[in-house]
Give the backbone structure.
Amino acid sequence: MLNIRKLPIGRWLFLLMFFVMSCPAIASATEVMVGGAPLKPWWFWPVILFFFCLLLGVLAVMAGVGGGVLYVPLVSGFFPFHLDFVRGIGLMVALAGALAAGPGLLRRNLANLRLALPVALIASTFSIIGAMLGLYLSRLNPNLIQSCLGGTIVGIAFLLLFSKNTEKPVVTKQDAIGLALGLQGVYWDDGARESVEWKTHRTLLGLFMFILIGLLAGMFGLGAGWANVPVLNLLMGVPLKVSVATSKFLLSITDTSAAWIYLNRGCVIPLIAVPSIVGLMLGSIIGVRILAVAKPKFIRYMVITVLLFAGLKALDKGLGLGFLG
Amino acid sequence: MPSMENQSLKPSKEQIIYANLLLIGMLAGIVIMTITYTIYVTGLLPSHVDMSLIATNWGKNIHEYQEITQSPHGWGWLYLLGKGDFLNFIGFTLLGTLTIFCYLVLVKGYLREKNWIFLVISVLEIIVLSMAASGLLGSGGH
C-alpha cells in the first residue's frame, strides 16, 4: 500500500501543480450546458474553487508571488466566471493576503511606513482610475480587456523569469526628493546578523512608475507585488527584503481603493468570493510551513510556465484566435 | 551610536498600533466572513438572489448580471442585511475599511510630531480611500 507520509515533498508539489494544470479539463467539461443552464449544481464550482485556491495559496508562497496575480489569470481562464467578477474578487484576495501579512512585517520593521506612504498615495489614487477604466472598457469591449490582461500576464511571466533583483543595491547618493521625504532606514538582516542601512535614489522616476502600477492593478485586479518589488529594488535602490515587505504592505492600501470600486459596482459575489479568500489564506499558511522543507525554485519555474500559458490563453480568447480552445 | 542604531531598528509606536489594529481587524474579518458564509450557504437566512440563479448568470458581465438578479449598487446592500447573501458584505466592508482606521492612528502620530509632509500624505490617503469606499466613484446606477 502507498504510504503517503513517505512521499517526498517535491513529488507532493508536483501533484499540486498537476491538479492546478488539470483545471482547464475540468472547466471545459462543465462548459457543456443544456438550454443555457449549467449541468452542475450551484455548490459545485464554489467547492472546486475553495480547493483550487487552497492549492494556489500554497504555490503562490512557494513561487514567491502574490495570490492575486495567479488568481485572476487562472480563474478567469479555467472557471466559468466572468472577468468582471474575477477581477473584483482577485483584488479582495490580494487585499486579504496583504492584510494578513502586514502586521508581522510592520512589527519586524521590514515594511517601512515612510517608504510605503507616499508610494501608496500615488498607487491607490491611480488604482481607482484603473478600476473605473477597466469596468468601462469591459462594458465597451470585453475582448479588449481580455487581450490586455493576456498581454500583461505574459509580460509578468517574463518579468518574473528574467528580472534579477539585488539583495542590497548600492546607492551612493540620495536624491533630493528621497531626502526630503526621509526615504531611508535601517533593518536587521537575520541571515547576515547585521543591521543594514539603506536610502533611495531615482525617487521621482520611481514615484511615476507607481502611476502605471496603480492603473494596472486596478484595471486587471492583479495586486501589484510583481511590479512593486522591481521598482523599489532595482530602480529606487531599496534592499530586497525591505522591498518585498513594503510591497506586500503596500498592497493592503492600493488594493483597498481598487477593491472598493469593484465592491460598490457589485462585482464581488459572496458565493465565490468567500471560498476564494479563505482558501487562499489557508493555502498561504500551509505554504509557509512547506517552504521550510522544500526547494521552491522548481515550483517557481512551473508557476511562471502556468502563468505564461494562462496569459496566452487570455490573449487567444480576447483576440478570438481559438488556438487554445 | 549603537543605542541610536538600536532605536532606529525598532518600529515606531504608531507602526506597532497600526500593526495591532490590522491584525485584530483582519482576524475579525475572516471570522465574520466564515460565520456569515455558513449562515448563507446553510440557508439559515433567506438569500436575495437564489444560488442557482447566480450559477446560471456568473458567466455574464456585471451589467447583465445585476439586471437579472436585481442586486444593489454601492451601499444598497445595507437594506438587505437580513438576506444571507448580503450579510457577507459585513466582512468585506470590515476588510475594506481597516486601512482607513489604521491611517487615523498615523494622522494622530504625525500631528504630534508636527511632521507636516506625512500628515498631509496620510490625510490625502484617507480622503482617497473614503472616496473609493463611498460609492460616489464609478459605482454606476440602475
